[in-house]
Amino acid sequence: MEFQSAGFQNLGSWLVRLARLDLTVFDDVKDEATATAPALAVVVAASLLAGLGSWLWWIIEIDVEGMSDKNFEAFWKTFILGGIFMAALWLLWVYISAMILSRAFRAGADMNQMIRTTGLAFAPMAISVLVFISVLAVPFGVIAVAATILLVNVAMQATTDGQPYQVVLANLAGFAVFAIVLGILANIAPISIDLGMGASVEQGGLAPGIFFFDLNL
Length: 217
Description:
Elements: H1 2-19, H2 25-29, H3 36-61, H4 68-104, H5 111-121, H6 137-157, H7 164-185, E1 191-196, E2 199-203
Antiparallel strand pairs: 1-2
Helix pairs in contact: 1-3, 3-4, 3-5, 4-5, 4-7, 5-6, 6-7
């Protein structure tokens, strides 16, 4: 327990350094065994915040009076399941990138180090909580995703001896799978809204943040 708590005690300072764009934090975190659990916690927290943002968007924009079951369905799908899926797909993103670096480019790629650094680098995805502000949903969603991609790229570079272009290609390949699967999940089990007169519309799916909703609704 003391071993694990040591990492969480340092998490605040690591995040502050990251917010200040002190990217040397990745060099410190990669070899810090106690950073593994906090890094995973960052991923889970950021993913849940992304889901919270899209659920709040639902409550503000789509909430149907007298249909609390739909509100709960949206909460369950985007906040709970969406958060879980996003966190799991981050791990797939990192795994694919590590495999490409080590097998395709024959570069050093330690999975444990990458989990620590890229987990911390996933923090900007928490910006997705702001997608509930409807008029700025797209900008905040894009900023969250773009900042995460860029930081994850730096985080991966800190853990490998691969060339910068190799890291970029591996990172983009991993992210492509992450985004495509989330896009597919966004179209699975959407919430059906009865508009009356035999008309209905479907909204959302099993994905959080900007992946959840159709802004053209």
